[in-house]
Structures are given as structure tokens and as C-alpha cells.
């Protein structure tokens, strides 16, 4: 079978678009439309001040899955760790019960002090205590 590069690229582009919009068993994996101004206004200190509190991640079935923020790690190089320098680079670690698994993706999040915002998380370590999820914030804040 002889396929041209042009034909391959057109089919591959179309196929990847379908894969992005449809997940396993036909479930949509596209994130809900949420006002992202909430996360824009949240900083390292916002999350650090709310460690060990519960965040509710709303899944595709609109079920609230509770995850506890267990760590906020500044991952900028030591030379750049001056507040207000216009860059933020930190990792959020959440811990949840294995009864409530979440897939990697963007979720609407609710928190009693921080409000509503969207956040992309990925699954980390799973053990007897539960599941750890990771979110990376890397942005310019100027």
C-alpha cells in the first residue's frame, strides 16, 4: 500500500482530533468550560496557605471527588526564588481515596476559601493509603 505524506498527515490530523474529543467507551474527555480567571489569581502562597484542606474535583458525571492538598513545592531554581519576580513554578500534590479514581485531565475545582477554578491533574503514586495526584503550575505573572 502506497500512502503519500500529504494523505498520511491529513488522516493523522483528523484521527488525533477524534481521539482528543472521545475517550474510552465514547466518554468525552474534553474539560468543562469554566471561567479560568480563578486560577489566574491564585499564587503559590494562595495554595500554600491552604495545605491540608479539602478541594472538590468535579468529574464528568458531576460528582464531587474530595482530594486533600498535601504539598505545595516551589520548583524554581534557588537564584529565582524572589517573590514578585514575574515567574511562578510550583507543584501541587493532592491525596485522595482509591474509591474515587480520577483520570488525567482538567477538572472544575471548588474550594471553600479559593473559590472555583479549572486545574489539570495527573495521577501519581497509588498505594494502600490512596492515590496521589499532581498539578504543575508554570507561568509568567507579570
Description of the molecule:
The structure is a single chain. With 142 residues, the chain is an alpha+beta fold. 18% of the residues lie in helices and 40% in strands. It has helices at residues 5-21, 37-40, 44-48, and strands at residues 54-58, 64-74, 87-96, 105-111, 115-127, 130-140. A six-stranded antiparallel β-barrel has the order 1-2-3-6-5-4. A hairpin with a 2-residue loop joins β5 and β6 (130-140). The relative contact order is 0.18.
Structure in a nutshell:
By secondary structure, this protein is an alpha+beta fold. Helices cover 18% and strands 40% of the residues.
Global structural class: alpha+beta
| Oligomer status | single chain
Whole-angstrom Rg: 18 Å
Overall pLDDT score: 78
Distance between the termini: 53 Å
- Count of DSSP H/I helices: 3
How much of the sequence lies in strands comes to 35-45%
Report the major sheet.
6 strands, antiparallel, barrel
Shape: globular
Order of helices and strands: HHHEEEEEE
- Roughly how much helix do the residues carry, as a percent range? 10-25%
Total beta strands: 6
Strand order of the largest sheet: 1-2-3-6-5-4
Uncertain spans, ≥5 residues at pLDDT below 50? 13-36
Topology:
Layout: H1 5-21, H2 37-40, H3 44-48, E1 54-58, E2 64-74, E3 87-96, E4 105-111, E5 115-127, E6 130-140
Antiparallel strand pairs: 1-2, 1-4, 2-3, 3-6, 4-5, 5-6
Keywords:
alpha+beta; 40% strand; 18% helix; globular
Amino acid at each position: 500500500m502506497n500512502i503519500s505524506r500529504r494523505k498520511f498527515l491529513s488522516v493523522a490530523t483528523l484521527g488525533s482530533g477524534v481521539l482528543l474529543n472521545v475517550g474510552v467507551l465514547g466518554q468525552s474527555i474534553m474539560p468543562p468550560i469554566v471561567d479560568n480567571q480563578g486560577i489566574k489569581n491564585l499564587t503559590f502562597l494562595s495554595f500554600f496557605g491552604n495545605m491540608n484542606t479539602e478541594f472538590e474535583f468535579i468529574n464528568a458525571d458531576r460528582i464531587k471527588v474530595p482530594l486533600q492538598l498535601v504539598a505545595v513545592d516551589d520548583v524554581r531554581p534557588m537564584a529565582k526564588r524572589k517573590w514578585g519576580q514575574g515567574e511562578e513554578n510550583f507543584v501541587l500534590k493532592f491525596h485522595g481515596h482509591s474509591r474515587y479514581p480520577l483520570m488525567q485531565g482538567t477538572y472544575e475545582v471548588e474550594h471553600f476559601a479559593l473559590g472555583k477554578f479549572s486545574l489539570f491533574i495527573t495521577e501519581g503514586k497509588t498505594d494502600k493509603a490512596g492515590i496521589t495526584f499532581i498539578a504543575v503550575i508554570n507561568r509568567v505573572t507579570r
